[in-house]
Amino acid sequence: MKSVWRDGDRSRTVEVVSLGSGRYRVTVDDAPFELSAAVGPDGRLSLTTEQGVTSAELTAAGARRFVRLGALDFVLEREMGARRAGGPRGGHQVGLESPMPGVVTRVMVAAGDVVTKGQPLVALEAMKMEHLIRAPHDGRIRSIAASVGEMVNGGVPLVEMDEAAG
Amino acid sequence: MFSKVLIANRGEIACRIARTLKAMGIRSVAVCSEADRGGMHTRAADEVRVIGPAEPRASYLNIEALLAAAKASGAQAIHPGYGFLAENAAFAEAVERAGLTFIGPTPEQVRSMGDKRAARALAIEAGLPVVPGAEGSDPKTLAREAQRIGFPVMVKAALGGGGKGMRVVDTPAALEEALASAARLAQSAFGDGAVYLERRLERARHIEVQVAGDGKGEAIHLFERECSLQRRHQKVIEETPSPAVDDALRARMTGAAVALARAIRYRGLGTIEFLLAPDGAFYFLEMNTRLQVEHPVTECITGLDLVRIQLEVAAGEGLTVRQSDVAATGHAIEARVYAEDPARNFLPQAGTALKVRWAGGDGVRVDAGIESGDTVTVHYDPILAKVIVRGPSRAQSLARLAEALDGSLVHGVITNLPFLRALARAREVARGSIDTEWIEREFLACFAALAEAPAPELALAAAALGELLGVGATARPRAGAARRSNVFASLGPWRIPGLGT
Hints:
The complex is a heterodimer. Chain A is an all-beta fold. Chain A has strands at 2-7, 10-20, 23-28, 31-39, 45-49, 52-61, 64-69, 72-79, 93-97, 102-107, 114-115, 120-126, 129-134, 139-144, 151-152, 157-163.
């Protein structure tokens, strides 16, 4: 099984091949190693490598995996499909995403509006911080997926716009 | 003593206040916004009243709704906690006008300490040293005063405090513009454009003294707290005693604090904040007329319950603790767990805390506002919990803190726990050689290098194997707690490609 994970700014690929009786060959970013994995009664993964045994505690939250390894925490995000890996989806259309979970406080444009680069489009507020989502380039607003007062998660597309021709 | 008290707050502090009420046999009334229905603080109280929509203005800052809830529940007194209306004189007044008791100082004391210029004047009158500064509305006069004080100077909002409405001006040329923009900001944030100047002290430490007064002129102190570990004026780790304060300095600082509390006939619990300069001089900064976030470290070394002291003074029993009864043993440290991503510029986080586990054991106390399955919303302060440890020495309590942070876990919402773990192990923290800007000046860059390092291969292997073996998908939000905000969290791991990451 092959999967792609976002680790901070990196995209990392993991391939797992079962060797039978709890043994696996895992390849992380082209570096292969073997380990044994067992699920304990507490739901934790017990991973045995040449270096020893490590306990891993996993929690899935949407695409996110919270991974506790020993006393360290990591947050990885499952990347789904090839489309996400490479920049904006589908040609000239750019989805503008909320940078953090928050409440939409202002929507300053409507579908069909022509906007210029840097123009504020939507204002988002979270924990006393305001964040403006600005047009990344000149273009026309295709649609607005946010309304004032609405609560949104981080990473949710709020505005879709086309790039100005030429 | 009261038989029923309403807690006009939420989160960890509402839970903490409810604990003392329970111990004293007083019934507690929690209030909550619609977004907080079923939240941990509502489970900690004997009864709950929903007071309005999620926005703080419509709920936790809604004086009418709070008074109506108090009346309807039959509470005789209101504890404001910290934040929200805790330092709002109009609220304190409204509570008293409604025939209820405000668990805190008099409205007049709240008002005068809330105006930082009035507070400075009171401190000077009581003989306390203040940071060299100037006030006035004429920019030309202020420019002349700034020259006298010496650059860099701070421009502060009169009604600000706690780092809000504050900016640093390095050169005379930048002053005029800074005064105008600070006044504009103060006008919009605090409804009053008044500003004042203060010299900027380099490498100063934040040391505060806990006081309690009976409202009749008697006051005691409960030693100091060091709160120099701050990020953007937000405290991160606090401790007592301060590694920078020896017995002689402690006697002078606590003496000054008690003198001010006595001079104003302070009622209830308060904190007098000082800046301690590298040369050992200290200056009055401001007074907080409420229970502090970091009050547990004081409780740990004195064995006193500070909320109980508040209740006793408010109920007219006066100060039941005399200064000669107050003694400190050991060392205590608190670390604040916030819902923010330390790897991404500390952006606020929200979602469902699917799995929450706090360290326990000897010398460890955790004041938490969430449990597994609780929702963290974007509407309120991002503090989730405080991990507090106590040990016989500073070195031992610091080691215990590192261990307690390692033993705590929050999955489902990103927190600053990795940041706190790194701080608890930093060499400068161990040495105690810190000041209020040390985190931003030196530590953030070190932490960024740590945070940006790739996750170990085993972490990625665990995530992939977890998916293969179906591990980690069992956690579910608390029943009834699922809402739009965590719709992505509740979908589980088997997501449709391309949707909502």
